[in-house]
Amino acid sequence: MAESDGRSEKEKMLAGELYRATGPEIAADLLRAERLFRVYNATGPADAEQRSAILAELLGAVGEDVVLRPPFYCDYGYNIRLGNGVFANFGCVFLDVATIAVDAGAQIGSYVQLLTADHPRDPVLRRQGLECGKPICIGSNVWIGSGAIILPGVTVGDDAIIGAGSVVTRDVPACATVMGNPARPRRTSEPGL
Fold it and tell me: Which residues form a coiled coil (predicted)?
């Protein structure tokens, strides 16, 4: 669906602007991703080659030795880029209306959510069905504990640790350990994860 500037809703989405999640392009992309992740989620541990082929078709980029344990869910797939050796445990959700980049060696616990989808704070704009996306960047060798939620626009630096169940609302520096809701730096007197 094009607005007065002639761009489709998908073009606006990919540009990080306000858009409506409607129109034939967006609908087709959502159906494509759902078809692929349903097939992926039906595979078993012995289906490594099939899993690799599905991920190569579903995702924007997949490095070597990537493991995504099913079930795995995403919006579009093509906005997800995974570096070499990325591991994600069962039940992860990557809402990729904007880019999700996960660098080499990152380890992601079960039921982690990486959520690029965002909505306007202005209720008038929300009533119009507008939304937007902000990219998420996860550095190399990051460890994200189970059940953590990374919100739109967050960058997590290399070697950082996100505690299980944390809600990350702002950037995390390299080598930092954060935990809680909202996630805050761990004090040295706190017990380990």
Answer: none
